[in-house]
Amino acid sequence: MSDAQESLSCFIVPVTEHHLLLPQPAVAEVVTQQFMREIPGAPPWLTGLVEWRNEQVPVVSVETLMGAAPEPRNRLQRMLVMHGLEQFPGLTYYALQVRGIPHPLKIRPQDLEAASEPDPGDGSIARRVRASGVTCLIPTLERIEGLLKEYLQRL
Questions:
Q1: Strand 55-60 to strand 93-98: parallel, antiparallel, or no bridges (unpaired)?
Q2: Distance between CA 99 and CA 20 in Å, rounded?
Q3: Cα–Cα dist 139/119, whole Å
Q4: Which of 12, 58, 85, 106 suits a disulfide with 7, CB 3.0-4.6 Å?
Q5: Of 34, 27, 18, which is closest to residue 99 (Cα–Cα)?
């Protein structure tokens, strides 16, 4: 097998206190928004809605899901618009709130090493790894989408 077949294109993305490791094919676009509409009564991890390509896209804070205090709202919000992998009706896209600019890289299995820190027990993080010298969290996108589906069904 060639290296291209054995590697996966990924992003390392800074969030408030951590870095996320995400597969590039799951990311539709990196956007910066000036306006995010709040959702009254939403859980703290669901930070609002943004308009993206004429759709209202829910925005999730992975760090708040892991138990961190919600971040104060800034004028500009950077987020990754994600493809809805689980294909739940009404959840074609959602966004993950991020801090910095994603750094693309190719990852091969031998490039990853398990990090020594324990994973949070809430299921929102699949693994904690070191990739390209950076400790990263691999979020459980299926769990995040499931939480969004549960919340959106109640509306």
A1: parallel
A2: 11
A3: 10
A4: 106
A5: 18
